[in-house]
Design goal:
This protein is an alpha+beta fold. The chain has 13 helices and 10 strands. It has a 5-stranded antiparallel sheet. The protein has a 3-stranded antiparallel sheet with strand order 6-8-9, with helices on one face. The chain has a two-stranded antiparallel ribbon with strand order 7-10. Helix 7 (149-165) runs antiparallel to helix 8.
């Protein structure tokens, strides 16, 4: 049962000595999410967020996120061109805890919107590159995961093996993925700092500038391609500009096989969906996964495009992968999507259910070709405007909890402010409702 906003506001005052709350706003629906969350405005005009986990999975997720935020020290944060939430305090409640952090302003965008124009696409590319360019020393000091290329590949091999053991993985895909994991050249990369769960949901934007990235529970050192696979399926007209800007900002640190590994990670999401169905003994999920795997096989046989590696055959176009992965659920039942700190109305502890009988609009799935043949040579023609005035941008979120059970990014409808029954002083009732947020985090050429 959801905790009332005023109860959470009172909990926040217990968590933060001296805090005086003068306005509150629901930051989640009353049901269906992993957290009860309320946005607060203090008497000294600070904007804060308090979140209380609803189950053990969410509590574990929150603990990992706090560990990551602690590891991201002031010195590290100064190297990033965007804002991160800061821990403020916590208080026990009903066997768990409420955690108060600063509120990161900004609007959520779909992957297509994040790549819809050069300025915003460049800001996205710069933001991702900034994370990957961070010095890796703090990762080990904080005890966060550090994966070598060999360990990354071993994890992929293990995933393919588990999928094979289900008896449902087509032989053509097994061969394709094994050829990719056997290709030594594909796995020659320099591990970097990675967010680990980056998706379109992770970004907060004002005007055409990324103002924040939320969701850091998978922070570690590993394969930078993990943070890029969602970008390869973005259909915005400036998707290539985001990739080019990213590469330029890496200053030669990006290996030439990042696109191929990112694509592989996207395809492996189908394997994860299959495994989830088997683990849950959900025949409908298994059938859904098998259908998408079969469609992937058909596309591999029928199309010729960028390979996963020199030894593999043809792969999918952007549209091919999108048409299958648009309906693929969130793949890790133990991990909350990166946008969780933006809005919490979606049930992040369960995999996103397939939209029943929903056929994708052809206009929404038409692929745009991403020419990766000159990966490493292209450079953006312009930069995001660093002086963009965010004053006219509305704040992020569907604080009233626009339904994310159907789609986690139907954001923006305001909620009734609750403070002794009085109307909140928040005035952004015209907050934007972004549709089709949190499309599948998949990859394609």
């Amino acid at each position: 049962m959801a905790r009332p906003p005023l109860t959470l506001a009172a909990l926040a005052t217990a968590a933060v000595p001296g805090l005086e709350v003068r306005a509150v706003r629901v930051h989640t629906r009353n049901s269906g999410g992993s957290y009860d969350a309320v946005r607060l405005r203090s008497s000294d005009d600070r904007e804060l967020l308090i979140r209380v986990p609803r189950d053990q999975t969410a509590e574990t997720e929150q603990s990992a996120d706090l560990l990551a935020l602690h590891a991201l020290s002031d010195g590290v944060r100064a190297m990033l061109p965007f804002e991160l939430a800061e821990y403020v305090g916590q208080a026990p409640v009903d066997g768990t805890r409420g955690v108060v952090t600063t509120f990161v302003p900004g609007l959520g965008r779909t992957a297509d919107e994040l790549t819809g124009s050069d300025p915003i696409a460049e800001s996205v590319g710069l933001a991702i590159a900034a994370v990957h360019n961070l010095p890796t020393g703090f990762i080990g000091e904080a005890g966060l995961p550090r994966r070598t290329p060999g360990e990354v590949r071993d994890e992929v091999v293990a995933l393919v093996g588990r999928a094979t053991d289900t008896g449902h993985l087509p032989a053509a895909l097994l061969r394709r993925w094994e050829e990719a994991t056997d290709d030594e050249s594909l796995w020659r990369f320099q591990p970097t700092v990675v967010n680990g769960q980056l998706s379109a949901d992770s970004f907060l934007v004002l005007e055409d500038t990324v103002t924040g990235i939320v969701g850091w529970s998978e922070l570690g050192q590993g394969d930078p391609a993990v943070d890029l696979h969602w970008l390869l399926t973005a259909r915005g007209g400036s998707a290539e500009r985001a990739l080019e800007t990213y590469l330029l900002a890496r200053e030669g640190g990006a290996d030439p096989h990042i696109p191929q590994r990112a694509l592989l990670y996207g395809e492996l999401e189908l394997a994860r969906w299959l495994l989830h169905g088997v683990e849950q003994r959900d025949d409908a999920t298994i059938a859904d996964a098998v259908g998408m795997l079969d469609a992937l096989v058909e596309s591999v046989h029928d199309r010729s495009s960028e390979p996963l590696s020199p030894e593999t055959g043809p792969i999918l176009t952007v549209g091919d992968v999108e048409r299958m992965l648009d309906r693929t659920p969130q793949l890790d039942a133990q991990r909350e999507p990166a946008g969780a700190m933006l809005t919490d109305s979606y049930d992040f502890t369960a995999l996103r259910r397939r939209e029943a009988d929903a056929e994708p609009d052809a206009s929404m799935t038409a692929p745009i070709p991403l020419d990766l043949s000159d990966w490493g040579d292209a450079a953006p023609e312009s930069k995001a405007d660093p002086d963009a005035d965010p004053a006219h941008a509305s704040e992020s979120t569907d604080d009233s909890g626009a339904s994310r059970d159907a789609d986690p990014a139907q954001r923006g409808s305001t909620a009734a402010d609750a403070a002794d029954g009085a109307e909140s002083s928040f005035t952004d009732s015209a907050e934007r409702s972004a549709d089709d947020q949190a499309r599948r985090n998949s990859a394609s050429s």
